[in-house]
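Colleagues,

For the teaching module next term, I've prepared a clean inverse folding example: a structure given as tokens, and then the sequence designed for it. I'd like students to try predicting residues themselves before seeing the answer, so please don't circulate the second half yet.
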């Protein structure tokens, strides 16, 4: 493991263990997977650190959007029900976002919610890794390396 504080980690179905809490709650770079589309701040907008974190690792908002949109297309995660038209922009809320959970139910019909959430967090983990692997500048690569090693 790393020196990440245990209160900044969660065990989630599909992610296995040591998933990061959201960026707005002090999570590490891997938590970008749970962030909204740049240009917007929804949940906990007053403490949103998405743009600051993207700049810190050298990923432009446009690159971030492209990664999430491409992932959404590859995984059939487009949905008019959720914010920004894609499940890839949905958050971690395990209590459930009503729109996210309806969109997930449409994508994975007939499955119990526990199985759906396991798939959701598994894919969010994949997206997290893809985001960090997309960091190209040397300084940013150094910053994300230890988090990539957690996958």
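(Answer key — instructors only)
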């Amino acid at each position: 493991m790393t020196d990440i504080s245990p209160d900044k980690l969660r065990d989630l179905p599909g992610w296995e263990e040591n998933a990061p809490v959201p960026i707005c709650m002090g999570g590490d770079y891997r938590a970008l997977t749970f962030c909204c589309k740049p240009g917007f701040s929804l949940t906990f907008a007053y403490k949103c650190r998405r743009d600051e974190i993207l700049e810190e690792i050298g990923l432009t908002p446009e690159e971030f959007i492209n990664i999430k949109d491409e992932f959404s297309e590859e995984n059939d995660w487009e949905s008019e029900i959720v914010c920004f038209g894609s499940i890839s922009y949905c958050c971690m809320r395990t209590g459930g976002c009503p729109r996210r959970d309806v969109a997930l139910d449409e994508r994975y019909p007939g499955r119990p919610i526990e199985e759906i959430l396991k798939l959701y967090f598994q894919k969010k983990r994949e997206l997290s890794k893809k985001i960090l692997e997309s960091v190209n500048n040397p300084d940013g690569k150094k910053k994300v390396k230890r988090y990539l090693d957690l996958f």
